[in-house]
Every structure is written in C-alpha cells, then in structure tokens.
Design the sequence.
C-alpha cells in the first residue's frame, strides 16, 4: 500500500538543477534511506517532503493527498535534524510536548504523551533537564521523541547520527530502528554512511548528482549494483576492464588471462568491467573458478580482516581475508594465485 | 619554572586611563557636595530632587525610553529574524543602514525631521502627542545601532534556521515560532539592547530640545547655564542612573549566558 509518493520531482536553484526526475513510492511502515555523497540532492529531496523547499516541478502525495504546496506546519511530518535543534529555553519535557502545546491539547494529555515518549526513549528521569545538560546522543533521542510526540504520518531523519561519536552512533542506530519497528511509522532516513543505510533500511535509494541511481533492498544494492557509481559507492569493489569474448558463455578476457562472468548487466556496447567484491576472492587456486595471478603490492591490517592488494595485468585488485590465528599473510613482492567463483562476479558498463 | 612577570606598562596605562575617567568624576562629585560653605552637604541634591521640573523630565524621558524600547523590539526582532532566515545577503546593507545614526550628526538628522514633519501634510509638531510620536521615532533611529547589534549577536549564537524548521515541523506558524522559540532564546540579547537604548534616550539632548519637549537632558542643559552646584549633582545622578542600567545589564547577561551559549 503506497503511503508516500514522489513523482517526477525536480528542484532547481536558479540554473543549478539539484534534483531531477525523482520518482519513488514508499509503503506504509517502510524504512527508506536516501544514500549518496554530499551534494547529491538527498537532503533537498527530504526537505521537499518536509515542506521546507518547494519542488520546481512534480508532486508529493501522502495517502493520495497532494501536499506539494502545503506549508511545513500543516503537513504533520516529524523531522529530526543533524544538529538536534532542541529548543534551548525549554526542558526536555517541554521540548517533547511542544508540538502538542501548539495544537492546543489539554495539559493532562500533553503530560501523558510526554511521559509515554520519554519511556520510549528510556529517558524518563531527564524530563526536567535542559538541552545543554545532556550529551549529544541524549539530545538526539529527545529530538526523536519530540518529532514522534505529534504522531506524525511520516518521520524524516536528516543525517541524525553524523554529529555523534562512533559508539553512540551504533547504539542510537539500533534504537531508531527499534522505535520505528515498534511504532510502524513510515520513515525516510538521509545518510552518506553506507553502513547505516545497509543496516537500517528496508530499501535504499542511492543518489548521485540529483538523480536516482538505484532503488533496492540492501542485499540488492550491495550484491547487484546497477551502475558503476552504486558499485563504487556502496562497499569496496574491484573493477577490472575486460573484453567480452563469448557473450553466451560469459567468457571474457583480462589481458592474457581468460575468465568467466556469472551475470551480465544491461550492456549497451560501451567498454565493460568485471566487478567482484574483495570478500569473494581467495588466495590459492581452485578448479571451476576464475583463477588469476599477480604480484602482492600491499597488506593492510584492518582488525577482523586483512586487505591484500595485488596488481594483475597492470590493474589493482584487492581481496579480504579473515584475520584467523592460523592466517599466513603473503609478503609484498611475492607472486600469488587467487580465485573467485564465477557467480560472484558480473559485468557492468563503464560510466562516462 | 619562571615566575610570572608583572607587566608594569600595562598597569601604568590602566592607572592612567582610570585617572582620566575617575578624576573628573571625583571633581564633579566633590563640587556637588560643597554648595554650603566650608561643609560637605547634600544641599545641591536636595534642590534637584525638590525641583518638579527634574521629576517631570525624569518621568518624561523614562516613559519615552520605554516606548522607544518596545517599538525597537517590535521593529527589529522580526526584521533581523527575517534577514537571518530569508535574506542573509542583505546583511551588509543592514550593517550600513544601522550605522548611519553614528555617521550623520544628530543635529542634521533633527533638522531634517523638523523640516519634513512639521510642515503639511504631516504637521506633527502642532500637538504634544504627535510631537512625542516624532520624538519616539527619532529615538528609535538613534538607538538603532545598539538594538540591531544586540539582537544580531543574540541570533548569531542561535541556529535560527534549524530551530525555525524544527518548530514549523511541529506545527507552529510564523508567529508561534517567533513568540515561543526565537524571542525566549534572545532574552539576554533583547535586554542588553533595551538597557543601552534606555541609557541613550535618557541622555539625549538635541532631539528633545529642538522639539521642545520636557525631557531630562534639556533640563540638565538649562540648569547648567543658570546654576553652579545643581548641574554637578544632576550629572552625578545621571551617572548613577547609567551605571545602574549597565549593572543591571551585567547581572541579567550573567544569569543567562551558559544556557544561551551551550544550549544549541
């Protein structure tokens, strides 16, 4: 059931087009992330949903009602900002109750709802504190409670965790998802952090230069990126320029070495690249797999994994191995054979 | 470890500056207490306080100052807020406009006011009430640099845009955003602006004397021409008044700074 629908949204600031032909249908209760580098138009799109920006063209509907030109205070959309934006002059309880006070709810009702919300974020004992007496993580939880207190039809989060340190970010990420699931509220989450998007979302919208590159579940986005941009932006990927020798059997060549690709994306005659994730590649040779050999250029220790960089036919390629206690790392300068399954690699066209 | 050196030059300049300010004040104070021969007395103060013209001037100036403050707040808070939110590029223009009262001599400004508004179609100087309207308008302009700057600094310490958007997404209209969110967070800034404006209006001479209104400063000037000891007493009184305003400002701003600065 479509809850929020954006159709043919375009936003231009003067001559600069920030968002172009953005189409998306969001289902009730879905958690959607807008993922992309800064300047890709994700925040602008979110701000158009919130009503802070008006689209140059296109329509925004919630439950079939056209809200394209509705002012933000009439949309009943909760918003959480990167900078928390708590009202410094109000206590936590007053911040959370603000939206209800504006809609002239009774004191008892406001108190009950504030209590409910503070219980939801597990901060009941902080009701009488002022924002400046709270840590960043606590402030953002209050901001979340404040946005939810008005029972919005949509929850919008604009990089809510970017200002927090790594540990708190992880905690709060789980908390946001828990609360979202508990309330079943349709949520749009803007982030440039692929890990956040992959771990939180039902679906991810990957954006670049104002356009949607791909919409899909985290698995689809990671395992089958549609474009070179998505492949490069989400996770680490090896892209090797190859020549297709036999499209039916998937036979390709990389320099003098012959390989097979499991999947062929949409190919339109442009130069193609073999895409394979570092974690799919293993050291050593194995029958019925793609086997290549190259010189070790770098060995980088990343904690739970070790990333090994090789040069194969003049092209860099990296592979990840688990940091087990039996692991024997190759040395720089040695020549090693590597292998990866045919089904773990696919072909994508080189972008412009 | 090196012992902290005493900066004798710094002390020298501080003492010199203090003497420059304090000596004349001490002289005035001393003189104001010597109305009666060979004794220290508060006679000059008694005479000033017993003069109904002093009280009338004080009352009139206080009232005008308060009206000026209210008008300034109503005028400048929404204007500066709008500038921050919608037209940040207008800031340089605002800076220049608000500094004009410092650049244009008050006397020139007053002549301009009188020439424009004492003739038809306005003829504001025909009645006391309309003259007072004109005088308040003049005071608002004269105190504008202080009021604008105070509010400007206050807004700069706030994330005005995001707070506004947060309040809007929670259902507030423009008026509610201003009243519930922006103004309470500008409390200290508005008070500082108000107190400086108050001090400015209380000491303003040219506008009131050319528009012939019973303000405090023209009374002081008049007294200065005709009496010896009383003007000195009056000067001390107005000093005290100004310092009292500034002291109040200090207390108020200390009370609120921590919240204002860290509560973002």
Sequence:
């Amino acid at each position: 059931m479509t809850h929020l629908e954006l159709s043919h949204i375009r936003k231009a600031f003067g001559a600069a087009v920030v968002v172009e032909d953005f189409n998306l249908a969001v289902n009730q209760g879905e958690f959607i992330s807008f993922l992309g580098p800064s300047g890709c138009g994700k925040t602008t799109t979110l701000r158009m949903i919130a009503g802070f920006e008006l689209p140059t063209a296109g329509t925004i509907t919630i439950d079939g009602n056209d809200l394209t030109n509705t002012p933000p205070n009439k949309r009943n959309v909760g918003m959480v900002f990167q900078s928390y934006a708590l009202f410094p002059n109000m206590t936590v309880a007053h911040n959370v109750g603000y939206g209800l006070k504006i809609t002239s709810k009774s004191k008892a009702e406001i108190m009950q709802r504030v209590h409910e919300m503070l219980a939801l974020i597990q901060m009941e004992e902080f009701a009488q504190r002022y924002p400046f007496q709270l840590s960043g993580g606590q402030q953002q939880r209050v901001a979340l409670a404040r946005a939810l207190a008005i029972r919005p039809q949509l929850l919008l989060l604009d990089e809510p965790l970017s200002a927090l340190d790594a540990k708190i970010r992880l905690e709060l990420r789980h908390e946001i998802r828990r609360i979202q699931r508990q309330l079943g509220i349709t949520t749009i989450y803007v982030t440039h952090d692929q890990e956040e998007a992959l771990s939180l979302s039902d679906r991810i919208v990957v954006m670049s230069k104002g356009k949607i590159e791909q919409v899909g579940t985290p698995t689809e986005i990671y395992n089958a990126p549609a474009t070179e941009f998505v492949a490069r932006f989400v996770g680490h990927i090896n892209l090797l320029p190859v020549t297709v020798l036999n499209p039916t059997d998937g036979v390709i060549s990389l320099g003098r070495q012959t390989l097979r690709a499991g999947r062929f994306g949409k190919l339109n005659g442009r130069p193609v690249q073999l895409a394979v994730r570092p974690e799919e590649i293993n050291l050593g040779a194995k029958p019925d797999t793609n086997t290549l050999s190259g010189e070790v250029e770098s060995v980088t220790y990343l904690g739970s994994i070790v990333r090994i960089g090789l040069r194969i036919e003049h092209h860099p390629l990296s592979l990840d191995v688990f940091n087990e206690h039996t692991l024997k790392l190759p040395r720089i300068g040695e020549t090693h054979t590597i292998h990866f399954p045919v089904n773990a690699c696919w072909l994508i066209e080189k972008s412009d | 470890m090196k012992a902290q050196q005493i900066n004798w030059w710094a002390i020298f300049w501080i003492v010199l500056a203090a003497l420059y300010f304090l000596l004349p004040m001490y002289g005035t104070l001393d003189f104001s207490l010597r109305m009666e021969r060979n004794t220290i007395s508060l006679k000059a103060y008694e005479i000033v306080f017993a003069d109904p013209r002093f009280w009338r001037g004080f009352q009139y100036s206080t009232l005008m100052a308060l009206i000026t403050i209210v008008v300034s707040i109503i005028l400048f808070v929404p204007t500066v807020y709008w500038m921050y939110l919608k037209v940040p590029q207008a800031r340089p223009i605002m800076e220049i406009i608000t500094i004009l009262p410092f650049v244009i001599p008050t006397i020139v400004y007053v002549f301009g006011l009188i020439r424009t508004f004492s003739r038809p179609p306005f003829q504001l100087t025909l009645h006391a009430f309309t003259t007072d309207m004109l005088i308040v308008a003049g005071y608002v302009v004269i105190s504008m640099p202080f009021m604008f700057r105070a509010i400007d600094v206050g807004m700069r310490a706030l994330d005005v845009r995001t707070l506004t958007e947060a309040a809007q997404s929670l259902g507030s209209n423009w008026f509610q955003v201003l009243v519930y969110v922006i103004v309470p967070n500008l409390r200290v800034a508005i008070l500082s602006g108000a107190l400086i404006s108050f001090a400015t209006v209380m000491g303003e001479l040219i506008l009131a004397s050319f528009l012939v209104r019973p303000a405090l400063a023209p009374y002081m000037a008049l007294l200065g021409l005709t009496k010896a000891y009383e003007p000195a007493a009056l000067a001390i009184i107005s000093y005290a008044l100004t310092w009292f305003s500034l002291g109040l400002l200090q207390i108020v701003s200390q009370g609120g700074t921590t919240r204002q600065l860290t509560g973002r």
Observations:
- Chain A touches chain B at residues 50-52, 71-79, 81, 83-89, 98-99, 102-103, 130-132, 143, 146-147, 150, 156 (CB under 8 Å).
- The radius of gyration of chain A is 24 Å.
- The first strand of chain A starts at residue 2 and ends at 13.
- Chain A has a mean pLDDT of 92.
